[in-house]
Amino acid sequence: MKAELILEETLEKPWWNRPLLGNKTLMDYISSQFVKLDIPQDILYHYNSALDKLENMTVTVKALLNDKFTEKDFLTYARIQSYLDKYNQHKQHYFVIGKEFFKTLLDNLDTLIKLTEIEAEYNSPVFLAFYEYSLDLIKQKCDKLIFQEKLRKSIPSFTLKLTEEKEQKIIKLYMKYLFMISEIDNLAKFFSLLKTNQLEYWDLFKKIKNLLEQNRINKVQDLKSFVLLVKNDDSLFRDIATKVIKIKKDETEDELIIARILQYVALNYKYEVLYSQFQLFLSYLSKWEKTYYYILHLKNKYPSNKYNYPPNFRVKLTGFDVYKSYYDYLDSTYSNKNNE
User: Fold this and answer.
1) DSSP character at residue 6
2) Nearest residue to 114 via CA among 187, 204, 174, 199
3) Does 67 have pLDDT greater than 50?
4) Three-state SS for 78?
């Protein structure tokens, strides 16, 4: 009887106000499509915390932003260096070997030239024997302290054979220069490679050093000056490329490869210190990015067409202008980098 009364009461209602699904009427269904829900309080708390964090990090990121980061030369270097940092950490790219070789050599060029000047002027059998002994000792690749001790202990056996005091002083001076190059990482190894492979192209190294010093104040982005240098001494550069930098022989036909290595060395001289500041800037920008995508995740989870947005859900996220200029340089796990 009760069921019959409910049915009768239901049938008396207009069709649009009768239950459509369960006890939910058509009007209830339609109105539910237009009524927005409130975002849960715990989500608002997490969102506001992330927003405050993003604003604080934006202040830090902008404080670390250097005007020189916008220079074309610097950005060229940053792209090369970031590529090498990301993809060649466990293997030696010839750009890395080339930079290490040329920088180590050029930074100590005066000492190496003094060694070769002594060799050219003093070539008696005793001196020649000492040069050979020293070179063999370098090739043994011993620890620098062991190398220096062995050299120091050997010197009396050579000075005793020299009658002139000047010659005795010169051979000790030569030993002093060897001590100096043994203190620099890989310099003794490179000195040995040059002598063993007959690559003592000191005039060429002076030209390279002069060009690189000029480019410390000039624009390095243009390859033209480096290409001209390589073309003028093509065969010498190919010898260095194959015997020291270990570029494949067929690749040395491409003058641009060697020219680009020299350009990279020039850029490294110019921007190595600044790049360490850039890395610090990127480390904070990466943290900013992580928070930024967390905020986007919350917004996507609670879209504006279904939820009431409080004012802070509609604010423009600070720091995006900086992020969009430099996100390509980040070693980031975020693959979906869309504009805000």
Assistant:
1) H
2) 174
3) yes
4) helix
Cβ–Cβ under 8 Å, residues 252 and 258: yes
Question: How far, in Å, CA of 48 to CA of 311, rounded?
Answer: 11
Q: What is the per-residue burial (b if ≥16 Cβ within 10 Å, else e) of 1-30? A: eeeeeeeeeeeeeeeeeeeeeeeebeeeee
Tokens, residue 221 = 């982005």
Q: What percent of the chain has pLDDT over 90?
A: 63
At 117 the three-state DSSP class reads: helix
Q: Report the run of H or E that residue 19 belongs to, with start and end.
A: strand 19-21
DSSP-assigned beta bridge partners for residue 21: 24
pLDDT of residue 138: 95
Please give the model's pTM, rounded to 2 decimal places: 0.78
Q: How far is 295 from 301, CA to CA, in rounded Å?
A: 10
Q: Record the tokens describing residue 136, joined without a space.
A: 């063999």
C-alpha to C-alpha distance for 78 and 8, rounded to whole angstroms: 80
Q: What is the DSSP string of 38-55?
A: EPPHHHHHHHHHHHHHHH
Phi-psi region of 186 (alpha: psi -120 to 50; beta: other; left: phi over 0): left
Is the confidence at residue 250, as pLDDT, over 70? no
pLDDT at 28: 55
The greatest distance separating any two alpha carbons of the chain, rounded to the nearest whole angstrom, comes to 136
One-letter amino acid for residue 216 of the chain: R
